[in-house]
Amino acid sequence: MTLADQPTPVPDGAPGQPAKRGRRADAERNRAAIMEAAGAVFAEHGGTVDVREIARRSGVGMGTLYRHFPTKDDLLLTVLEKQFGSWLADAHQQATATEDPWQALSGFFEQMLTTQAGNRAVVESYTTRGGPTASCAQRCYAFIDELRTRCMDAGLLRPDVTTDDLVLLSGSLSQAVLTTADSRPGQWRRLLRISLDGLSSRNTEPLPEPAPSTEPEPEPSTSPGRSTS
């Protein structure tokens, strides 16, 4: 093949390039529309909703939806991770700006449950897994531990309360949000106040000892060349 026979590279802006960019822009708009519609639909109906309703609200066909998200679980986790990340960032910013450790802790619970009261899918994920994904659950655990430590250092939290206690409490209150959403919306606020009063350092009666964990101990990790003895 001579140089004259070789195909000439198509420079940016030449015929054909704008069409490709246009297709990418259309795909991005479709994905954004699907994400927006899915966020609203999952919040209203939870994770069991039919994806055809999401396609209808987003104005795309089912084929387009499945090209972006092969399964409903893919779409649900993507939406929940985005929502969870945004909420946790806001919660962290609010807690950091709050000087009083107790107000930071109670404000976290209030913000968490208020958010969940308007998002059924988030509540479902939080009550079953502590968050949409294991990574989300770990980030939330670390944040709750920070809040607990601040309150403990200030002498505001009863000394035998653990981070695990607060995580389990948040899950229990989330379940209360879910079960009373239709029949008694807002009932969780009373339960939250009762729970916060019980966490106060004013209460000096010792808590019952926690039951031993039934989860298996993790296997010790090893590195090449390092002895485990």
Query: In terms of structural class, how would the helical and strand content be classed?
Result: mainly alpha
CATH architectural type of the largest domain:
Orthogonal Bundle
What is the distance, rounded to the nearest whole angstrom, between the alpha carbons of the first and last residues?
66 Å
Work out the helicity level. 55-70%
Q: What does the radius of gyration come to?
A: 25 Å
Provide the residue-averaged pLDDT: 82
CATH class of the largest domain: Mainly Alpha
Number of helices: 9
For the largest beta-sheet, the strand count, sense and barrel status come to: none
Strand content: under 5%
Outline the low-pLDDT stretches: 1-7, 220-229
Sum up the overall morphology in one term: elongated
Briefly note the CATH topology name of the largest domain.
Tetracycline Repressor, domain 2
Number of strands: 0
Question: H/E order of the elements?
Answer: HHHHHHHHH
Keywords: DNA-binding, Transcription, Transcription regulation
Protein name: TetR/AcrR family transcriptional regulator
Organism: Streptomyces paludis
GO molecular function: DNA-binding transcription factor activity; transcription cis-regulatory region binding
